[in-house]
Every structure is written in C-alpha cells, then in structure tokens.
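Dear Dr. K.,

Following up on our conversation at the group meeting, I've run the structure prediction for Transmembrane 9 superfamily member from Gossypium aridum. I'm pasting the input sequence below exactly as I used it, so you can double-check it against your construct before we proceed with anything downstream. Let me know if the numbering doesn't match what you have in your notebook.
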Amino acid sequence: MGNFGIWVLTICLIFQSGYGFYLPGSYPLKHVVGNYLSVKVNSLTSIDTEMPFSYYSLPFCKPVEGVKDSAENLGELLMGDRIENSPYRFKMHTNETEIFLCQTNKLSSDDFKLLTKRIDEMYQVNLILDNLPAIRYTRKEGFMLRWTGYPIGVKIKDVYYVFNHLKFKVLVHKYEETNVARVMGTGDAVEGFPSVGNKGSDVPGYMVVGFEVVPCSVMHNGDLVKNLKMYEKYPSPIKCEPTTVSMPIKEGEPIVFTYEVNFEESDIKWPSRWDAYLKMEGAKVHWFSILNSLMVITFLAGIVLVIFLRTVRRDLTRYEELDKEAQAMVNEELSGWKLVVGDVFRAPSNPALLCIMVGNGVQILGMAIVTILFAALGFMSPASRGTLITGMLFSYMILGIAAGYVAVRLWRTIGFGDHKGWVSVAWKAACFFPGIAFFILTILNFLLWGSHSTGAIPFSLFVILLLLWFCISVPLTLVGGYFGAKAPHIEYPVRTNQIPREIPAQKYPSWLLVLGAGTLPFGTLFIELFF
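The predicted structure tokens came back this morning:
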C-alpha cells in the first residue's frame, strides 16, 4: 500500500463513527418497578478451609416452590459452585421492612452440632442478585473493608449466635438503551417470577448495579410467628444492630429468620458495577504473594548470574595473562564453561520421558499465554462465572496439537532424523501428565464425596471430562505428532563427543538438592493458600 492509500485509510478511520460496547459478562437486564427480583445462593465457603458445602445443608429457610439448581457451566462445577434458588425475593424499587421468612424446626442434636461447627470453621453465606454477589462492608481501625458474603454466625464466650436477620441494600441505575453485546449467559435468568420484559421497552425500568448486605442477630419471639406465612410482616419492630448479637443457638429450639430491603438509586453505570469487587481487601494478600514470588525469582536469577560471571571472568583473566602465541596453544578444556560443549546435546538415558515433558510444558505454557491474553481482552470476566476454568481447559485440550508436534519433533531430533516410535511418544504425551492429574482428581473427589462437599465432581462430569480427553485432546496430540514426524529434525550447532565425559561425584546428596529446589516454589504456593 502506497502513501496515498495510507492517507486515505487514516482519513476514513477518523471520520468513521465508532461504537463502543462492553464485551465481558452478561447483558444488562431491565427490571420494571414492582417486578420481583430473585436472590440466589451459592455454596457455603470458608476463609479457614477450602471445602465448600451446600447452603441447604444447614437448617435455613427453603423456597416454597422447592430447591432448584441453576444451570451451571463446566468451570462452575469444577470450582465447586452450586447456585440454587433462595426464599429471599424483592420488589423492584419497593422498600420493605420486617419481612418474616420462616421459622425452622426445632434444632436436633445433629443440626446444632453441624451449625456450631460451621460457625467455628468461619463459613460464609454467599448470596447473588442479578449475577452480583452480596457485598458486606465492615469498619476496622478507621478503614472501610469490603467482603463478599456474610458469616453464618459468631461465637462469643462459648455461646454461639446466628445471624437471622438480613438488611439488604440494592443499588439501582435507571435503564438506558445501550449497545451492549451479550457475550455469554450465566444461567441467572429470573425463575418463578414474572418476566422483566413483558411490559414493553417503553416502560421505564432500572438495572441492578450493587447488592449489599448487613447481617444481624435479633432475638425473635417464636409465639408471634406461629400463624405467619412467608413474606408477611413481622408483628413487632425489628432493630438491626450489626455491633450487637442477641439470638443464641440452642438445641431443641427453632430459629426465626427475617429480612428487610432498601432500594437506592446510584450513579454507578452498569459496566462499572463490578468495580467494587475488584477493590476487595484480599487483593493486598495477592500483592504480597506476587512480591514474594518476584523476590524468589530475583534471588535465584542473581545466584545464577553471579556464578556465570565468576566463571566467565576467570576465563577472561586467564586469557589476558597469556600472550598471543601461548593463547593460541591453550586447550579448550581450560575454559570451564566450555567443558560441556561436546556433551550438552547427548541423548539422555530416557529420551521419551524428556520429549513428553517438553511437549506438555509447551502445552501448559501456551495455555497460560492464551488464558492471560483472553482474560486481558475481557472474554473471561468475573461476571461470567466459570469461564476462566472452562477457557483454560479447552485451550489446554486444543493445544494438544502443539504438545504432540514438539514432543515428536524433539524425539526425531534426538534420534538424528529417525521418527520410528513417534506414535508411542505422541500417545504418551497425550496421556501421561493428564492421566496423573486425573488420578489425583479422582482421589480428591472421593474425599470430597465422603465429606458431602459441593466441591465433589458429579459422575456425569467425570464422563464429560473423559470424553473431552479422548475425543479432543488425544486426537489433536496425535495429529500434532504426525506433523512433527514429517517436519525436518533440528540440526545440532556442535558435534557430540563419542565418549561421554566423566561426571564427578556430587558434593551434596540428591535428596538435599531436591529438598532445596522444592522449598522455594512450595513456599510461594503456601503463602497464597494460607492467607
């Protein structure tokens, strides 16, 4: 393209009208005043343990129409999410107070022990409204902290208290006709309530841009609610004081649950409604973990650099001390860093295992690059639950073609152009590391099944994973291996000595080197998981 064409293209781009759109997540949902909003519940999660449990595993109120699971994608199931409907419901832009939810049955001994155990383990209730998790604000040492979810209860002086009254605040923004692309649905459509789109597009409506909750422990009189039905008004005023607790948990006594909701118009626009969640206080811990990882990498790189510089500087000093004639007669073996030139490309004792590891390493590296790229572009937004895990899984399977190609081509290079046995190498590259991961996943899943955790993968998902593995990943790896067998092998830049160089005895035992090499990455992961 000449200069004239470039100028024409530039002018066209300047005068061309542009349309911006919000790429990630779900589309904005218009709610007409008076329409019902359904609140959903996710799995109970703990800041102390890594095992999620179902919300209805504890004696909480259940919906009148029964508990129903929401449609979940592959990533949500692998993450242990279980999104279900809840009895909490709101009317758009309608403030309600002192709403009676239910009175549970008398707590049995098992229910009492389980409820107190979950409180000791610091489990949190995770509510969802219009795909937004409930956020809780707390003040500590003059700072306002943000947390998702709210605790089940609290223990004070050996007495357990339950948060049985919830004070909701829903932030809404007036609906605006925007050119927003719906990229991916999350299964969060309103169930069991009137549709939000039945009254026409000309009727004014609102969008949900914030969802806040304040848990309270309020002493209720069980005799006052014997004849009350769900969503009727509680007979006496309810005062929600977050700093005080007054509803102890006692075996053989029921628990009364109530709630209130307040709507507030906000200037927050729909594309910016996730900003509050991206400023969570947990990000400080992640920054600390990232800083720790950078320090480890810098420390290791510094050690390698110092050793390399000392070796090279010693050789250069030796060369400078010799005159030109003597330098020409110096044997190359005097140079310490050139001692392994004739042995660096020697085939290992198990070349197939090396090829498999390199191929799978390329596959994992490619998966990481693709995932980070798509996440940076917004295709894997937190508004679409499970898309990150789903994207990682599918990119890993598709990049099996790269693993097969690299593994087989390296195998052919080690064999000096002979591609005999490439099918076996490609097959092992497709099954070796995924097989180990699947074996570990199976063992962990049996433990989760035994604990009745929602983190346990259903049997149907196991079948799906096996089909994806053997119907997508394995064939693509074999295809990549075929192209790797047809590609020319890589020529070595130096010749390998026929007689292997004698390796001196190790100064330190192997187990000590393995322990030292594994301590640093283990410490990095431990800090991330511990905090």
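Two things stood out to me. The mean pLDDT is 81. The two ends are 56 Å apart (CA to CA).

Best regards,
J.T.
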